[in-house]
Amino acid sequence: MAHAQYPPSLFSSLITCFIFTLALFSPSVDAEASSCNGQPVFCDRKYSSVTQLGAHDSPFVGPLPQQNQNLNVTEQLDLGIRYLQGQTHKVENDDAIRLCHTSCVLEDAGTLESFLITVKSWLDDHPDEVVTLLLTNGDNLPVSRFDETFAEADIKEYVFVPEPSSEVLSMDSWPTFGQLISKGTRLVVFLDYGADVSKVPYILDEFAYYFETPFDVTDRSFSNCSVDRPPGAKPDGRMYIVNHFLDVDILGVLIPDRIRAPKTNAVSGEGSIGAQADLCQSEHSRLPNVVLLDFVDQGKVMEAQDKLNGL
After folding, report:
1. Segment 167-202, tens digit of pLDDT
2. Three-state secondary-structure class, residue 167
3. pLDDT of 37-86, one tens digit each?
4. Is the pLDDT of residue 19 over 50?
5. Mean pLDDT score across all residues of the chain
6. Ramachandran assignment for 62, one of left (phi > 0), alpha (psi -120 to 50 degrees), beta (any other)
7. Closest Cα partner for 60 from 89, 94, 86?
8. How far apart are CA 122 and CA 78, in angstroms?
9. Which residues have CB under 8 Å from 204's CB, separation 6+?
10. Which terminal residue of the chain, N or C, has fewer Cβ atoms less than 10 Å from its own Cβ?
């Protein structure tokens, strides 16, 4: 049976149409996202101009007193959380950096590498999302060890590096969420102590960029928005983190207040996310950049985030 013969001009047109269709539907990191972190308006907002609600001690999941979350990390991200905080520690006779609550005897949530692999898998599946990690360095490990772990998790392809990397970005110099997404630099990383951008340029010094309000709060009204860390720092020129997670004192031991979490994580009312954000705004003349929470599945966390961002 003879094959159909197309005129050269028609064949050329078909090829052109095919190539155009491929280009239209093929993913590209240079394409502008139509929605960023779930909101079209975030695409044009600077990273430093959005309030993000974050999971405090995000790896420590379960019903025990030392555990701070009910949802695992993937479920936290699926809920809408894009800011994950976690504690790291080192144990003897183990080269791995581990995610441990105060000590690895009390609570060991596994290796940092495993955590990063989970985050990378989620980023792979969600190309229009920017995730931030805030890690603590409780055992003062060299930043090169963190870099090695990020490399082992194969997640460095996503990391954001400021330009120039040797300087601290001013608040108005941060890229927009749309720019972070279009460049494929969708993982922002902070370390509380031990960062050195001359050695590892993508692991940023938390306290060069942020100040924090007091933590381990037992005051249900959250009536304090003062600068707690870094000690003696002025708030001007820094983003800031509100530690809005409530502890309860049991015989001198502070544990997360799971029972009051729905009220602590409410949109409004005494001791709510909204109430403390309003207090901090009145004190610092701007809304917080991050509000860290325990039990992010309790209360109305994403509704509170929308309200703080004027949505």
Report:
1. 899 999 999 999 999 999 999 999 999 999 999 999
2. coil
3. 999 999 999 999 999 999 999 999 999 999 999 999 999 999 999 999 99
4. no
5. 92
6. left
7. 86
8. 9
9. 162, 188, 189, 190, 191, 195, 197
10. N
Task: Tell me how far CA of residue 135 lies from CA of 2, 6, 64, 152, 234, in angstroms.
Answer: 68, 62, 22, 17, 22
Q: What is the CA radius of gyration of the chain?
A: 22
The token pair that represents 272 in the structure block: 């709510």
Structural domains of the chain sorted by starting position, each given as residue range(s) with its CATH number in brackets: 42-308 (3.20.20.190)
pLDDT at 32: 64
Structure tokens at 143: 């930043």
Q: How many other CB atoms are found less than 10 A from the CB of residue 200?
A: 24
Half-sphere exposure of 242 (CA within 13 A, CB side): 31
Kind and range of the H or E run holding 115: helix 112-125
Query: Helix 301-308 to helix 273-284 angle, to the nearest 10 degrees?
Result: 30
Query: pTM for this one?
Result: 0.89
Q: Which two tokens stand for residue 128?
A: 């229009």
Q: Given the structure tokens 């007193």, which residue do they identify? A: 65
Catalytically active residues are: 56, 101
